[in-house]
Amino acid sequence: MAKTPQRPRKKTAKKTAKKSTKKSSKKTVPKRAAKSRPRAPKKRAKASRSRRRPARLLALSFLFFLGLGIYLLYLDHTVREKFEGKRWAIPARVYGQPLEIYSGMAVTPQRLEAELKQLGYRKAGRALKPGTWSRHQERFLVRTRGFRFWDSDEPARHLEISFSSGRLNSLRHVGGAELPLMRLEAPEIGSIYPAHNEDRVLVQHNALPKQLVQGLIATEDRNFYQHQGVAPRSIARALLANLRAGGVVQGGSTLTQQLVKNFYLTRERSLWRKVNEAAMALLLEAHYGKDEILEAYANEIYLGQDGGRAIHGFGLAARFYFNQGLEELNLSRQALLVALVRGPSYYDPRRHPRRAKERRNLVLEMMRDQGLITAGEYKGAATAPLGIDSSKGRGKGRYPAFMSLVRRQLHRDYREEDLNSEGLRIFTTLDPWTQGRVESRVARKLSKLEKKHALPTGKLESAAVLVDSQSGEVRALVGGRHPGYAGFNRALDAVRPIGSLVKPAVYLAALMQPERYTLLTPLDDAPLTLKGADGVLWSPGNYDKKSHGLVPLHQALAKSYNLSTVRLGLDIGLDRVAELLRRMGMSRPLTPVPAMLLGAVSLSPLEVAQLYQGFAAGGFYSPLRAIRAVQSSDGEPLQRYPLTVRQAVPAGPVYLLNRNLQEVTRSGTGRGLSSYLDKNLNIAGKTGTTDDLRDSWFAGFSGDRVAVVWLGRDDNKPAGLSGSKGALQVWGDMMGELQPAPLELLKPDSIETVWVDPASGFLADESCDEARRFPFVEGSAPKTRSSCIGRGGGAVERFFRSFFE
Amino acid sequence: MSEFYRAPVWIKRAVSLCACLLLVGCVGAPQKSAAPVTESSSTMVTTPSETVTPAEVRESSGVVLRAYEPPVPMSARPVHGKAVASLLAVAAQQERSGNLQGAVTTMERALGIEPRNAHLWYRLAQLRLAQNRTILANDLAMKSKALAGADLGLKRDCWQLIAKARRVKGDEAGARVAERKARMLFH
Asked: Cα(B1)–Cα(A106) distance, rounded to whole angstroms?
């Protein structure tokens, strides 16, 4: 014991300290044994050569104490280094979009309630503490918590919020002035924790609730404030109890020892580890105060498991179990956290509520017996329900699809180890309220569609992307039918042929040449056969297997005719179409083949959203963003992802296209939308279907949102749904829930509106019977005059007609 | 946001007005069929084989509006809500104290509330120009201009800002074009 283990032991300890994992030390144990054996005989041989015994003994004991001294110094160094340095890898916390509150905003009381609930606010008779609210019919009193945003601090406030007829009509300080606007805290939507899966939220010592500390000390280490790190009497007591029981029934460790065990050592149970633990506990106490040790303990302690994620520290446990801040927990909840210290899985309140309650009440009992709480407090707390939050504390599982998008964007700028260890605060664009609605609608509609069309149950998969139309911020992302599972993320990775969703790009490319194409240009929808570069013949057909002769351009798009589209695309040139797609933000290499015109372009739903966002924003391209800003753990701004725009396409042609896309939902392939959404919303959109009904798409936009829905099967077998029978239905159902703003297109200066006789395509005026007004890029309106011009109507009639202009 | 929600009421009024006028206008209108008049410049020789079925906006009254485009609501100078007005004030304060980045962030927040308010885009463009980010300033001013609608004053301001941005970038010819466009908006 004296000499041999010294050097190798150091090695072990070093390794343990470095990695602090269980495995590494286990591996090193046999190594030590193997190494020490061959050395021992050598030393013995040396010793035997020595003639004088006392001198040898002296030398040996000198060496022993020297070794011990060095070892203690080493232990001391280890203890201090880790304790004073960065103690933990602090995972990045990821936040969603905060709710802006201002008078006049279109928000319902239900939405406000849902938002408050999501943030863990509790409804009370009277809102007295931060994080509580009360409601008196249309009037809310809310005590907000403060929050540090990426741009400014939002102080804690006491607010009065009133609604009338579904609108927020007043926002003011209670008993004070009106407030122009404020925002609730950004909801936490996830964290990025290290590979060893320890997640924690750091809590400072002075933020630890007093009763939590008292309860902890009462149950785990009554003499915490008296002992020097070890308590020999409790060890003896525990030893006796264990001998009597013939096994380990009681622990005699102090809180300091428990901390040392978790912090520096392994879970291995050996006498040597116990000795180390005691030595380090003594050293720790010698260097640091009780408060510091308690703070470290409160942050280190393991308190639960969420799938692969280990819940460490009281700060995170409070959120994980109660969806509340630690400082907001009442006595019974604090006691439950203390109860969990003994065995987070055995007393897991979600799986074993009875055990958890018994243990919690035992903690409360001990607190009462030690005079820490009154009998009344005990009674109140012991009869309280566990109060567990059902949402699992907004853990990793909530938004896996969106989180993977966030990670991908972050990885362009950050290393993984910075993300999971520096305690970064990441502000994203996700709107959890919208996300929740989209998720549930998609799942519900999928089952309905399977039933309605007698499709095999559970085979249909889906992805949905919802984007803010002007800024390109991603508000919701659904990666599959079961959004809680972190599996294949179809919104990002299902790269599928987009079918007719590509057609708007073809038509836009045409409308960008106003001297050649207008909305009324007749297109030939006659059959055609093309010979590819490889000599293979290609004969596209229309969805209804018919040819429609000559059709005006707007109708060809509205009805999604294939033949006229192919002819149009070939006429303007495949390169032009491909170039337009690139300008609108497509980064994927495109092969300019004729089949591209009918959607032999494979894109992910997110990429499609990028394309349609460009249309919705009037030809302005803004890269889709999931992140707004990144902040260091102490609130310093590290990075911003600003709002940028670039005019990719002139406004005039995009305006014509968007009018045409409105026709799609009004009278074209997308008219089924009217069973979900009011026609006056004037939604613009396009359906897409691929060969054998493998993929069903719908992409479109309202005044405020762009949304893309894809349906199909993972095995790429026919899903059995066209764009309008499948994806459109999901799209409509989902948007109907979100109260979209009507799409009001602003007419660019370059657009003029002209009376045209649609039958002939000739210039007309208001006196012509069938004439209608169509928008044209200036100078591209027909010049051939219809014979009806100027014939009709007297001055009075014209006067009245002029009101239409 | 507020402008979106005001619209339906306006549309309803506009539609009912149009419907009445249309009925009045139709009384006694002579029946005429559109016959093509040949004109030398015309390249169109064939008439479409199929009758065009133009999109129609049918109201409950059964009256058909004869415009391909749905009625466009008036877009006059944007009226800032209280929330946006207060953010504009904050941004101005930040700008005065030299905190351009802060002002940019504040304007982005304002745009989150009123994304189609052209004036906010213009303010953002101004700030970006002050930061010497000329390309972005140019693009933001283009965006503002696209949303400016009938606000000719704002459109002129946008062109002037674009001219400035182009000049800083070294694009003298482009700057002159922009200035000319700004001048054209004076009358």
From this structure: 8
Check whether B124 has a pLDDT greater than 50.
Answer: yes
pLDDT at residue number A45: 55
CB atoms < 10 A from the CB of B28, how many?
A: 11
Q: Which two tokens stand for residue A387?
A: 């109060």
Q: What is the pLDDT of residues A215-269, one digit of tens each?
A: 999 888 888 998 888 888 777 877 777 777 766 556 678 899 888 888 887 766 6
Q: Say yes or no: A165 contacts chain B, CB-CB below 8 A.
A: no
Between A78-87, A89-98, A302-311, A530-539, the lowest mean confidence (pLDDT) is in A78-87
CA distance A547 to A540: 11
The confidence band for A760, taking pLDDT boundaries of 50, 70 and 90, is: confident
> Which tops the pLDDT comparison, A456 or A19?
A456
Query: In chain B, whose CA is at the least distance from the CA of A520?
Result: B52
* Residue A392 or residue A172, greater confidence: A172
| Model pTM score | 0.79
Nearest CA in chain A to B80: A104
Contact (CB<8Å) B69/A659? yes
Cα separation, A793 vs A800, in Å, equals 10
Contact B161, B167 (CB under 8 A): no
Task: Give the number of other Cβ atoms within 10 Å of residue A363's Cβ.
Answer: 27
Strands (E), A527-657: 530-531, 537-538, 550-552, 602-603, 620-621, 627-631, 637-640, 646-647
3-state helix, strand, coil in chain A (%, to 5): 45, 20, 40
Q: pLDDT tens, A328-349?
A: 899 999 999 999 998 999 999 9
Nearest CA distance, A458 vs chain B (angstrom):
38
Find the closest chain A residue to B90 by CA distance.
A152
Neighboring chain B residues of A772 at a CB cutoff of 8 Å: 54, 66-68
Question: Per DSSP, what are the bridge partners of residue B123?
Answer: none
Dist CA A220 CA A235 (whole Å):
13
B7 close contact with A: CB closer than 8 A: yes
A552, A703, A786: residue with CB nearest B4: A703
What number is the ipTM of this complex? 0.80
State the average pLDDT over residues A522-540: 89
What are the respective helix, strand and coil percentages of chain B, to the nearest 5? 60, 5, 35
Cβ of residue B174 closer than 8 Å to a chain A Cβ: no
In angstroms, the CA A682 to CA A690 distance is: 26
Give which of A530, A548, A547 is closest to A539, Cα–Cα. A530
Cα Dmax for chain B? 70
In angstroms, what separates the C-alpha of B47 from chain A's closest C-alpha? 6
Nearest partner of A77 among A306, A225, A264, judged by Cα: A264
**Which of residues 733 through 752 in chain A touch B, CB cutoff 8 A?**
741-742, 744-748
The closest alpha carbon to A499, from A689, A679, A228, belongs to A689
> What is the residue-averaged pLDDT of chain B?
73
Which residues 86-105 of A are in CB contact (within 8 Å) with B?
Answer: 100, 102-105
3-class DSSP state of A586: coil
Residue type, A254: T
Question: Taking CB atoms and an 8 Å cutoff, what residues of chain A touch B5?
Answer: 106, 741
| Residue B46 to residue A550, Cβ atoms within 8 A | yes
pLDDT-derived band at A38, boundaries 50, 70, 90: very low
How many C-beta atoms surround the C-beta of residue A700 within 10 A? 31
Average pLDDT over residues B38-60: 34
Amino acid at A300: E
Q: Does A620 sit within 8 Å of B4, measured CB to CB? A: no
Q: Please tell me which residue in A220, A328, A439, A663 is annotated as part of the active site.
A: A220
User: Cα separation of A455 and A462, whole Å?
Assistant: 14
Q: Percentage of chain A surpassing pLDDT 90?
A: 57
